[in-house]
Amino acid sequence: MTKLANRYTYHNKDFLELDGENVIDFSKIPSNWEGFKLIRDMCTFGTKPVDDKVVVCHSGYSHGVTRYRVISNPLNMPSRLVALYCDGGNLCFGYHTSGDEICVHTD
Questions:
Q1: Which class for 4: exposed (0-12), middle (13-18), buried (19 or more C-beta within 10 A)?
Q2: Which of 20, 3, 24, 27 is nearest to 12 (CA)?
Q3: What angle do CA 34, 95, 40 make, to 5 degrees?
Q4: Taking all residues of the chain, what is their mean pLDDT, rounded to a whole number?
Q5: Do the beta carbons of residue 98 and residue 79 sit within 8 Å?
Q6: Whole-prediction pTM
């Protein structure tokens, strides 16, 4: 579970209070549009690390794949949710990881 800044708000089922701190159990967040709505404020596209946010940047294309590089992940968000963010909440064709890249499959 990951400690969260107070600026994030979630439905009660998606966060717990532990020792007076808000924490989130990423395993409870689904890999769909509802999950995307919960994580989108925790992520951003960019090239420099940002405190309390997952930062990713586009790193290229290949046949049927769009690649993204994770710049920073201070929340320890799992790759399935980072991929969901990168694909705008859809992720209908899946993803895989390759080294430090997340590769989102496209049609």
A1: middle
A2: 24
A3: 35
A4: 85
A5: no
A6: 0.83
